[in-house]
Backbone:
């Protein structure tokens, strides 16, 4: 090796390497900064093309610098630059609209169809709970206080007068109006918490989901029986149906999602438990999002529609009609996939 | 927290490393997000009530809708649109990346933020949201919240539960600063020092890069100058430099030594003789106290 220390212009190898490429790195740095600030869309066609090729050049420079250079500053700089460029180049590419429409049109109905059994079991547990509560209540109305938490009852207890109970079903005054909106908000947050709890605990072997759903059935059964005993059974059924069809379905779907997780843990089949959990997770997450959407819809119905529709017959028609629409969506949506559509997504890991 | 780094293998096959975001940064980011979203919400409603445009029932319904949107949907949308950064993360300069080196998918973003509902929001609501539930489940929730908050402390890559399930990591946004190449600077009006290959062969990569750090900042205080002098004297003694080095030339001496040694080590490296540190010659050679002293001078 000939010493080159006395010729300032004559650079050592790694300095020459850097001097030759520095300009491109700076260009990449500038493009990446712009993309970070206002998105790749703001770069334009030419710059986006340049970004991709400059990124690859920088990657190869980094690889080379690690092999030949002992300049710590250079390696640190290049590593950070490549990391930043990597994050811009490999940004999530889905548009919000694309994700949402694919999710609504295909993933949700398909996930529901794949999980039909746990969801049905969830419904069954809910009804079973309601029947048990009904029988127990008939034997001794004080069971009501065991099943229904105080905050939820809102004065609607077996001791309440029939007039009061009727007034909770039919909204006739403005002073009640305000109260109801707040109460439905409270119910919504209560219901979401329950749905999330039912879902999240499902991972512990599916049983907690079913037990919690059963408990919700108990609350429901106690309420309905109480109203029925006051001679308001049909009215209460209408009052409950208009939002309850959606709400109870949401709880059952959350239960089905949680159960999918638990079943994957209990019975992973041919793959490992964590792998099975990961696979079931995709459907389960879809189901809990669906449950969330349905709970929003239920709260909307509860907050607005129920006050507009005061006739019990119409309440039944609206409630069960909406239920039929949900069912139609789940049964008919996302079917064109089976005939081999143009979906290039690798998400159909299920079935 | 000490900053941990981890390496990601992008499809290009060149490993790149990220510094994991510290627990403090993550907690701060989450706090900023909560303050911004809920603060904005409260401000909005305060204004609405103040102006009195809408009636109460509409406001209540709007409030419950918006307070739902500022939870999970806000995090999902902002991380999708801003590539793994919420407002809080932008402020704390952190971001979410996919642990497998591929691009962050919508599914991962949704999962990690849905888990946030269970991990962060539900316990907060239950703990501070009135007496919806019994005291034993409140105790359970407290326990759950503490357990969940501790997960990132004990997980190897500072992941919370949602990160583990989604396969994501939160890292510091890398900052790029290109420092000048020290081997290029060479003002002509000064004495040059020349070193023999034997002298250059004493140290290895570690010492070279330590010297690089020292040379990044010219000394301004007397203390720094003294330290520089000590480094120069130690090196001159260790390599057995024959000529006299006046204290005024110490900076030039070190610069020259750095450049020549870098060239020497890089070329040895190319020939397959990589010298990681000064113990490269014989592994049995014990470090003398004097030899150790120069690594103590790392700034």
Residues:
């Amino acid at each position: 090796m000939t010493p080159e220390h006395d010729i300032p212009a004559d650079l050592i190898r790694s300095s020459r390497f850097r001097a030759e490429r520095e300009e491109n790195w700076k260009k990449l740095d500038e493009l990446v900064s712009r993309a970070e600030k206002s998105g790749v869309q703001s770069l334009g066609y030419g710059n986006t093309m340049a970004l991709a090729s400059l990124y690859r050049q920088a990657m190869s420079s980094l690889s080379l610098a690690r092999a030949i250079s002992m300049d710590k500053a250079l390696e640190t700089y290049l590593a950070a630059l490549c990391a930043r460029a990597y994050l811009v180049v490999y940004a999530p590419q889905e548009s919000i609209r694309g994700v949402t429409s694919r999710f609504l049109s295909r993933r949700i109905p398909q996930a529901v169809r794949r999980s039909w059994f746990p969801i049905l079991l969830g419904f069954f547990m809910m009804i079973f709970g309601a029947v048990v509560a009904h029988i127990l209540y008939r034997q001794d109305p004080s069971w009501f206080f065991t099943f229904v938490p105080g905050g939820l009852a809102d004065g609607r207890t077996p001791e309440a007068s029939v007039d009061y109970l009727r007034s909770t079903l039919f909204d006739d005054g403005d002073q009640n109006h305000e109260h109801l909106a707040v109460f439905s908000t409270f119910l919504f947050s209560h219901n979401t918490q329950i749905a999330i709890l039912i879902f999240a605990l499902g991972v512990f072997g599916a049983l907690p989901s079913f037990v919690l759903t059963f408990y919700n059935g108990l609350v429901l059964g106690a309420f309905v029986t109480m109203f029925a005993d006051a001679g308001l059974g049909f009215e209460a059924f209408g009052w409950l149906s208009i939002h309850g069809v959606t709400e109870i379905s949401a709880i059952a779907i959350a239960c089905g999602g949680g159960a999918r997780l638990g079943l994957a843990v209990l019975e992973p089949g041919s793959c490992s438990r964590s792998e099975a959990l990961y696979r079931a997770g995709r459907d389960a997450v879809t189901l809990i999002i669906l449950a969330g959407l349905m709970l929003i819809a239920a709260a909307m119905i509860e907050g607005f529609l129920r006050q507009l529709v005061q006739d019990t017959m119409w309440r039944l028609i609206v409630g069960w009609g909406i239920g039929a629409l949900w069912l139609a969506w789940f049964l008919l949506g996302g079917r064109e996939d089976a005939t081999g559509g143009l979906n290039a997504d690798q998400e159909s890991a299920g079935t | 927290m000490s900053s941990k780094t981890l390496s990601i293998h992008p499809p290009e096959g060149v490993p790149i490393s990220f510094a994991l975001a510290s627990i403090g940064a993550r907690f701060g980011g989450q706090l900023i997000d909560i303050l911004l979203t809920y603060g904005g919400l409260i401000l909005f409603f305060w204004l609405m009530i103040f102006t009195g445009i809408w009636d109460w029932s509409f406001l209540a319904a709007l409030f419950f809708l918006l307070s739902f949107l500022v939870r999970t949907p806000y995090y999902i949308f902002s991380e999708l649109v801003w590539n793994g950064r919420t407002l809080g993360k932008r402020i704390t300069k952190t971001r979410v990346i996919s642990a497998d080196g591929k691009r962050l998918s919508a599914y991962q973003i949704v999962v990690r933020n849905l888990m946030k509902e269970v991990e962060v929001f539900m316990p907060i609501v239950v703990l501070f949201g009135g007496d919806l539930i019994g005291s034993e489940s409140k105790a359970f929730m407290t326990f759950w919240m503490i357990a969940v908050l501790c997960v990132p402390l004990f997980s190897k890559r500072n992941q919370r539960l949602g990160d583990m399930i989604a396969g994501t990591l939160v890292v510091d946004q890398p900052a790029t600063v290109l420092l000048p190449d020290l081997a290029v600077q060479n003002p002509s009006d000064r004495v040059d020092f020349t070193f023999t290959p034997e002298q250059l062969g004493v140290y290895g990569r570690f010492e070279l890069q330590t010297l690089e750090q020292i040379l990044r900042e010219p000394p301004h205080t007397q203390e720094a100058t003294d330290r520089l002098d000590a480094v120069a004297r130690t090196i001159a003694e260790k390599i057995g430099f024959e000529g006299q080095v006046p204290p005024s030339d110490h900076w030039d001496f070190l610069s020259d030594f750095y450049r020549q040694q870098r060239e020497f080590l890089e070329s040895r490296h190319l020939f397959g003789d990589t010298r990681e540190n000064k113990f490269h010659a014989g592994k049995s050679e014990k470090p003398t106290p004097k030899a150790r002293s120069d690594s103590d001078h790392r700034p």
In short: The two ends of chain A are 66 Å apart (CA to CA).
